[in-house]
Each structure stands twice: as structure tokens, then as C-alpha cells.
Amino acid sequence: MEGTPVSIESVTEVGPDTVTLELETPDGFDALPGQFVLLRAKPDDEVLSRHYTLSSPSVGETFELTVGVDPDGDLSPWLADLDTGETVHIDGPFGRITYEGESDIVAVAGGPGIGPSVAVAEAAHDAGHEAVVIYQADEPAHTARLDALEDAGATVIIVAGDRTDELADTIARHRDAGQLYAFGFDDFVTFVADAIEDAGGDSDDALIENFG
């Protein structure tokens, strides 16, 4: 199997159908918040691969990925059941959507996009900048980290999944509060881009990661 083998340090449930994988950091691996890796694994003797965006604000001895678990999926349930010491393979990091500690940020998250959104917000806070997290979810994940961010002075806004008008209004209200990031699946990030345009902004100025 191609890629660099890395061991699983822990698998933690962080919300409904959502886990984080803590992976050992291989030699020479240097990633910024917003970047992603290609993860390969071999459940049932078949090699499968998926891209996952980092959900840790920095890379030390370990780094973290957030995985949305589809009960009918062919890889995510297997990843969620991994034990400490088991191995997966990674390539990367990849991606030009990064945060390097230079500005205030607004991170808009849908689904597993909350992982990198929290990471970018934490990195901004650690660098002494302001952070806003706008998260569309009926059953939020990463609530402990969101609570910690809010306690530290960040703005955290959770919008129910069916409150699309509220989501658009919230994006419009905060779009100029810092560099805007958006992480999520295609329908979600398309909605975010349209909301920016409808509010008189330019979606080309946003850093948008489309999970497909």
C-alpha cells in the first residue's frame, strides 16, 4: 500500500456519527491548519482512500483528523473502530488553503467541516487574533473545543440545519470580521459562496474547501 504508515494514537467520539483520529506525526511532516492528507487503509482486503482535512491547530508529535461516520460507508465505520497501535497510510499534506497566524478569521462549517474550522479558529486565537465560528448543525460535534473557544473570547454561532435564512444572515453579518474560510460538502460551500455574493461581498476572496 502506498503512502507513509502511521499508527493510531487514539480514536475519540466527538459528536453524533463523528470521531477524531489522532495519528502519530511521521518524520518530515509539516502541515498548516486548512491542509489535508490522503489517507489509505485496507479494510476487508480492499485498499480504500479518502481525503481528510486536519482538525488540529498545529502539528507536534501527533495530529488530528475529524471523520464523519456514515453507518453505510465502506471506510469511515472501519476507521471509527480502530484501536490504538493499528496502522493507516497517509500522503501529504496537500492544499493551498492555509492559516499562518496573520489575521482575524471567520470560519464557516458544515458537517465534518467543523474539524478544520475549529483548528483554524484555535490557531488564530493562539496567534492573538479574533475568531468567529459559524456552524450549521442540528447535533453539533466538537462542542468541548467550541465551548473552550467561546470561553477564550471567540464568537461561536450554531445554526440549525433548516434555518438557511438565519445562516445567510449570519454569514452576511460577520463576513467582514476577518479572512473568511468555509469547509464542507458541495451544497454547503456553494450556499456560503452565494450568501457572500448576496451580501455584497466577493466569494473569490473567501478560502473555500469543498469536500465534494
Short description:
The chain has 212 residues and is of the alpha/beta class. The protein has helices at 76-80, 114-126, 143-151, 164-174, 186-198, and strands spanning 4-15, 18-24, 36-41, 48-53, 62-68, 87-94, 105-110, 131-136, 155-159, 179-184, 207-210.
Furnish the topology, listing elements before pairings.
Blueprint: E1 4-15, E2 18-24, E3 36-41, E4 48-53, E5 62-68, H1 76-80, E6 87-94, E7 105-110, H2 114-126, E8 131-136, H3 143-151, E9 155-159, H4 164-174, E10 179-184, H5 186-198, E11 207-210
Parallel strand pairs: 7-8, 7-10, 8-9, 10-11
Antiparallel strand pairs: 1-2, 1-6, 2-5, 3-4, 3-6
Helix pairs in contact: 4-5
Structure report:
- With 212 residues, this protein is of the alpha/beta class.
- The chain has helices at 76-80, 114-126, 143-151, 164-174, 186-198; strands at 4-15, 18-24, 36-41, 48-53, 62-68, 87-94, 105-110, 131-136, 155-159, 179-184, 207-210.
- It has a six-stranded antiparallel sheet. Strands 9-8-7-10-11 form a five-stranded parallel sheet, with helices on both faces.
- β8, α3 (143-151) and β9 (155-159) form a beta-alpha-beta unit.
- α4 (164-174) crosses α5 (186-198).
- The chain is globular and about 50 Å long.
- The two termini are 24 Å apart.
- The mean pLDDT is 96.
